[in-house]
Amino acid sequence: MTAKTRIIQVGSYAGSPTANDRLARAYDIVELWKYPDRKAALAEHGKGITALVTSANYGCSAEIINALPDLKAICSWGVGYETLDIKAAHARGIQVSNTPDVLTDCVADLAWGLMLAGARRIAQGDRFVRAGSWGQVHGGIPLGTRVSGKKLGIVGLGRIGEAIAKRGIGFDMDVRYHSRRQRNDVSYGYEASLVDLAKWADFLVVATVGGPGTFHLVNKEVLEALGPTGTVINIARGPVIDEAALVECLESGKLGNAALDVFEQEPKVPDALKANEKAVLLPHIGSATLETRKAMEDLMVENLESFLKTGKVITPVEG
Ligand code: 8YV
After folding, report:
1. Domains of the chain listed by start with CATH number
2. Best residue among 13, 79, 106, 300 to mutate for probing ligand 1, ranked by most atoms within 8 Å of CB
3. DSSP3 helix / strand / coil % (the chain, rounded to 5)
4. Which residues have a catalytic role annotated?
5. Which residues form the D-isomer specific 2-hydroxyacid dehydrogenase catalytic domain (predicted)?
6. How far apart, in whole angstroms, are the C-alpha atoms of residue 45 and residue 68?
7. CA–CA separation, 224 vs 253, rounded Å?
8. Phi, psi dihedrals of residue 182, rounded to the nearest 5°
9. From the CB of residue 141, how many other CB atoms can be counted at a distance below 10 Å?
10. What is the pLDDT of residues 79-134, one digit of tens each?
């Protein structure tokens, strides 16, 4: 029997029911999260290790990369990679893979769930019924806002942004977007200024990448431009929105509603948001369906296997 290949696993795949067992069956895993002193663990077990698996939330820092002299591939579970030090990896010729495409539809669906939940007060209505507050009169919570036929602004027209735009057309919405560059392969209206997009839009969906380049891109000025009848939806990364400004705008009535799957300091959610009926709050579940989590796991493992067999990952992160 040949010995199993030793790989490093940065964190436990709690959000992917079979990934830990599947990896453990096929590989000799160094379970990095179990060591209180990661540096010492890497020094003791890292030599000769060529592949590492991680996720969008655990990331892979330059500290880990530098502690692994033989590392050649980092295979991550998740599409976002702002937590992985791509520069440090590429400087050493280390390939990095993520899991694009397989989660696009489910994340776009959740953006829709949030949009409808915020506008039509679905979460608030559910709380109202559970609290036993519903009397005989129809309704009993404040009126919501129509979604169909409204103006949908999308921040970042990548794979997920485009899937959200497509769904907007199904809701007879007028769709425009803002991104660094205008795309010439789509017919949606382009706004070079995010403030102008927010002024125009009824619903502003944040679908851009995270990281320093988009930190607080949606600031007070953008939220105020969206205005008292506007709703901001975020399925991207928490830090893209200035959360303090968001709380202030919701409380002062300068912004209508917020529907959020991501937060600046997950899993911490500001009490002011929890207390606000105009906010819908979810625990980062954009990709959290059985089908998508399985597909993410498969693609992460396929990248790893491909690297070990052919020396090349399948879905490399460029850049
Ligand atoms: C994960 C994600 O749900 O793919 C990503 O970048 O953010 C999500 O798919 C997340 O990493 C879990 O916390």
Report:
1. 6-102+291-310 (3.40.50.720), 104-281 (3.40.50.720)
2. 79
3. 40, 15, 45
4. 237, 266, 284
5. 26-317
6. 9
7. 9
8. -75, 140
9. 14
10. 999 999 999 999 999 999 999 999 999 999 999 999 999 999 999 999 999 999 99
